[in-house]
Design brief:
This protein has 296 residues and is mainly β. 8% of the residues lie in helices and 49% in strands.
């Protein structure tokens, strides 16, 4: 069963950002070989998303994040980096980097690996995880924080899951439009190497969005319910904070794919909403390099 049927602590220290990954370029081929390639079928184009996000609390800038995703014909990569900025830098320092990769099978993402590193004033942590068919095969998680009582993670909690980065690349089946209500009709079973939780999505509305640079068009807005399952600290402040909180996730399409990616995340708070929103959301396609050339 696909883990898409249906993250780590959400702090300014580990807000998502993505590092640059260059798309493949089409190699020059003699006319005869070009004819053979055309006969066998044209190489599928790689699709790329380069997104930049601003993070604010009560309208005040507190962080920035970058996200870079490359979807090829047989594999994908996703990378994120984030750090505190603006007024928050005077109160806390922190940065994080995450990456994920896996296979593309019939247009669906099949995660194979995930890593995360975060560093802040009170904790430094690193996680490396390998996956196979939605199950965790190996995981190493280290932290400098004092040991704390946590809800036990069992073997079953490591089955049928998806890593945090791959989970937020939402696949929409079929051949029609991708910005549809069905995109929100799922539960994302996430394991980040330490914590197992679900993000239950529900459809709220379709709206138009516009980044300062890049995408302008339709996006689907999902309501999000955070459901902690295992691995979190007993009495976790984050779990208490997110319990019953109104959360919205806005998803926009990645050109050349049937995938949607985060455009905006908002968490309602009486003292000031937390908002992560794309200032740039640029999608593109580039010709995939033929396998014979790539193997050289």
């Amino acid at each position: 069963m696909s883990p898409y049927e249906s993250g780590p602590r959400v702090t300014a220290k580990d807000v998502l950002m993505l590092a640059d990954i260059a798309p493949f370029r089409l190699a020059a081929w003699p006319a005869a070989l070009a004819l053979i390639v055309a006969t066998l079928g044209a190489a599928r184009a790689d699709s790329r998303l380069a997104a930049h996000y601003g993070v604010s609390v009560a309208g005040l800038a507190v962080g920035k994040a970058d996200l870079d995703v490359v979807i090829g014909s047989t594999e994908y990569t996703s990378a994120a980096n984030g750090r505190a900025s603006g007024l928050l830098r005077a109160l806390v320092t922190g940065e994080g980097a995450l990456s994920a990769h896996g296979a593309v099978v019939d247009g669906r993402l099949v995660p194979a690996g995930f890593s995360a590193r975060t560093a802040g004033d009170d904790e430094t942590s690193s996680t490396t995880m390998t996956l196979e068919s939605g199950d965790v095969k190996d995981v190493t998680a280290e932290t400098s924080a004092p040991a704390a009582e946590r809800v036990a993670v069992t073997a079953d909690h490591r089955k049928g899951i998806v890593d945090p980065l791959s989970a937020l690349l939402v696949e929409v089946g079929g051949t029609g439009e991708v910005v549809v209500a069905e995109a929100c009709q799922r539960t994302l079973p996430i394991f980040d190497g330490r914590r197992r939780f679900d993000l239950a999505l529900s459809f709220k509305r379709i709206e138009r969005v516009k980044a300062a640079k890049g995408y302008a068009g339709a996006a689907v807005v999902c309501g999000v319910t955070f459901k902690p399952i295992a691995g979190h600290r007993v009495g976790s402040p984050l779990v208490k904070y997110l319990d019953g909180r109104q959360i919205e996730l806005t998803l926009a399409p990645i050109t050349g794919t049937r995938l949607l990616a985060p455009f905006r995340l908002s968490i309602t708070n009486m003292l000031g909403n937390i908002v992560v929103e794309a200032t740039a959301f640029e999608t593109s396609t580039a010709p995939a390099e033929p396998a014979a050339t790539a193997a050289r």
